[in-house]
## 1
Amino acid sequence: MQAHDIAVHLPTVRPEDPVAKAMRLMVVNRLPGMIVVDEADRPVAVLPGTQVLRLAIPSSYQNDPALVRTIDELNAELFWREPGHLTVGDCLPQHAPRPAVVPRDATLLEIAALMAQRHSPLVAVVDRAHALIGGITLERLLISLAVAGPED
C-alpha cells in the first residue's frame, strides 16, 4: 500500500484563519490536528491539537506541574479562555519545522517513520507539484498497518 491508497480528503486551514475555525474543524472531524496550507494549497505546516491546547493554559502553569496542582477543580475552569482574535499562524512556532509531507507513492513504513520522527499525528500527501492531495492521520495509518499486516 502507498500513501495515495490510504490518504483521505481533510479540511485545511490557512495561517490567517481564526484559530477558533481550526478548533471547530478538529472537533467536528475528530482530527488530531490540521494541515495548514498556503494560497496555492501547498502544505506549510501541520498544526497539532496539542499546540492549540497550549493557548488555553498560561505558560507559567505549563512549565510547572506543581503549580498546576495548587488550583482546585472549580478554579481550574477559569483558566480556559476563548482563542479570541488569535489566528492559526499565532499557534505556529516562529521557526516552524517543515510540515510532515510525503509523496503519493510513499510506503506505509515511510509514513510511520516520518510520523514517529516528527511526533506528528498527521501527514500531508502531495503530488509532484507539492499540491495537497490528502492527509493521513495516525489512526488511519495504524488501521491500514493492521489490515495490511501478517495474519495472527
## 2
Amino acid sequence: MSPHPLFGGALSAVIPHSAADVSELREIPDNQEVFAHAHTDQSLIVELVEYQGQIADQDSARYHFEDIAGSNKALEPGAFEVTSVTALPKSDLLLSECSSAWMLTGTQCVSKFNEEARNTVTLHLGLLRLPQFSTDVLITFNDPQSISSDSSSAAAVGTHGVPWTVEDFQRLLRTLTLHNPGLFG
C-alpha cells in the first residue's frame, strides 16, 4: 500500500481500501481531510487543530474526544464514554516531529445531519502533538456499531463491503509523514 497525499502533499499516510475522498462530494474545511468507506457508514478524518498547551499530554486525547462529543451534541450523561487511552511509542510512528502521541477509544451516541435518530458509534481517536507548530494532528475513525432504522445511515447497514478495522486505523497513524512543515504557517 502506498501513502496517499494529504493537504496538497504536505503530509501523507496509508489510507484504507475503499476510501472515497469526501471533498469530491461536498465542501470540507481546509484543516480537514475526510474519507468515507465506499460500502459502509465508516469514516476517517485527519484534522489539523490548534495545539492546546494548557492541556497536559496525558489528558489531551480525552479533551479532543469531549470536544467532538460537544460538536456531535452527545454530551448528556450516557451519550459518550471513554473506554481506553494509551500512549503510542514515538518509535512506532513515522511522524518523528511529534512530541507525544495518544490513542483513545470511546463511544458516542450521535445523529447525522441534525436527525432525531441517534446511532452508537465507536470512535477511535489518534492524537499527534506538534507544539513547535502550535498544532495537534487529530485522526478520528468513526465506526458505527448500532444504526437506528430511522437514520439516513440505515441504508448502509448490511452492505457487502469489507469494513475497515482498527488495524487499518493504526496503520494510518503509524504511516503519517510530514513532507512540508510550511503547512503549519
